[in-house]
Amino acid sequence: MKVNKVVLAYSGGLDTSVILKWLQQVYQCEVVTFTADIGQGEEVEPARAKAEQFGIQQIYIEDLTEEFVKDYVFPMFRANAIYEGEYLLGTSIARPLIAKRLVEIAKETGANAIAHGATGKGNDQVRFELGAYALSPDIKVIAPWREWDLNSREKLMAYASEHGIPVEMTQGKKSPYSMDANLLHISYEGGRLEDPWNAPDESMWRWTTSPQQAPEQAQEIELSFEKGDVVAIDGEAKTPAQVLTELNRLGGIHGIGRLDIVENRYVGMKSRGCYETPGGTILLKAHRAIESLTLDRELAHLKDELMPKYAKLIYNGYWFSPERLALQTLIDQSQQTVNGKVRCQLYKGSVSVTGRMSETNSLFDESIATFEEDQGAYNQQDAEGFIKLNALRLRIANKY
Questions:
Q1: pTM of the full predicted structure?
Q2: pLDDT tens digit string along 236-288?
Q3: 255-275 burial, b if ≥16 CB within 10 A, otherwise e?
Q4: Contact criterion met (CB below 8 Å) for 6 and 31
Q5: Per DSSP, what are the bridge partners of residue 259?
Q6: How many angstroms separate the CA atoms of 385 and 182, rounded?
Q7: Could you give all domains of the chain from N- to C-terminal order, each with its CATH number?
Q8: Catalytic positions, please?
Q9: Any residues with CB less than 8 A from the CB of 373 and at least 6 apart, and which?
Q10: 358-397 b/e (C-beta count within 10 Å ≥ 16 → b)
């Protein structure tokens, strides 16, 4: 396919600036740049001036933070999704939104290709491309890291120098880690973390106070839920992005949400990564608490059984797949009664639930659950027949 115009996911950093020039040189096509603000905590507007230096005429810079939390993070947390028992999928959930905007911009601008800066070793290439193909089956995807021979920072710097690409020299010591951030989390890979025996340096963490140095006084917060989503903190209504921003701030103060794991990448290798997800850690704990009060037992257990499959789909890049969409329909239906309030205590790296209530949807009946006189609401003698019926196959199996 002849590329007439390509939409590049552009950060303005060294890698994507080299990619931009490389696309112009190798594919000899017009390039459109797309820079997304999904809460990474860095200014995105400087990418405009950098793109203009390359003669780019169509430059897209967009604030997607509310869409990111409302349509991607919150639906995922309704499922209580965790990959391999620990990872809250902070990087994984950001990729489908970027892929969606890439193909939408391609359609708007008449481009027949998109390009990204993910390497050929990682998960992100899969996530970007599966998302793009699901939404635009005929789109051409250009992944320079799978095509060129600029496979080291030295080669990238040499290419930049040769083609007059300005490289900003940062003041002070450069971080030895590869980092990726959005409003849900920040990740760290590479450097000394490549040896899974090495403990991360305390100086690595950007968002959270060390639990040992966190305040000596615990803090209580109250989260209000409507249909499985937090809509207010301490009684103050907030938008989805505002909710996550505030929970990140509070969790960061109290050292909540640090994680150090070795995970299994979709491409087949194991990878060691460290993550900070303060707001997400609080959100998950509180969501499970309100579900414990408002979800039927078998529905709650069904969700727990389906969750690992759902989480794996997100991790592997299948956000737009029919199976994920079908699961989401079930999950969202289950959340119609997940309404109420949860009180959490934040203290030195931990989140504890100290109360939960729902005026309209609680399934907890104190008159039945009480250890005191229950006024005939539950006949304890009924339990004997229930136990014997369920024990029948066990008794038969052990008779012989």
A1: 0.94
A2: 999 999 999 999 999 999 999 999 999 999 999 999 999 999 999 999 999 99
A3: bbbbbeeebeebeeeebbbbb
A4: yes
A5: 275
A6: 55
A7: 5-75+90-162 (3.40.50.620), 179-295+338-357 (3.90.1260.10)
A8: 15, 95, 124, 178
A9: none
A10: beeebeeeeeeeeeeeeeeeeeeeeeeeeeeeeeeeeeee
